[in-house]
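Entry 14. Structure prediction run on the chain below.
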Amino acid sequence: MGELVYALCTITSVGCALLLIRSYLRSRQRLLLWSSLGFAGLALNNVLLFVDLVLVPSVDLEGLRTGTALAAMLMLLFGLIWEAS
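Output returned:
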C-alpha cells in the first residue's frame, strides 16, 4: 500500500510542476518559475523516497532525500521572498 502512496505523491508533484511551468511560459511571472522548480524538487524527493524504501531498501538515501527536500523548500521560500520585495 505504501508503494501506491509514494507513486501517487510523485505523480501529483510532477503534475503540479508541469502545470506551473506551463503557466510560467504563458505569463512569465517569476513566482511561477520558482514554484515549478520547487515542485520539481519535491517530485525528485518522492522518486528518491520510492527508490530508497521500495527498490533498494538496503541502501540508505536519507541524506540525499533530505537534501533534495531542503533545496526544494528553499527554492519556494526564495521565490516568495524575492517576489514580495
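The helical segments are 2-27, 30-55, 62-84.
Filed with the rest of this week's runs.
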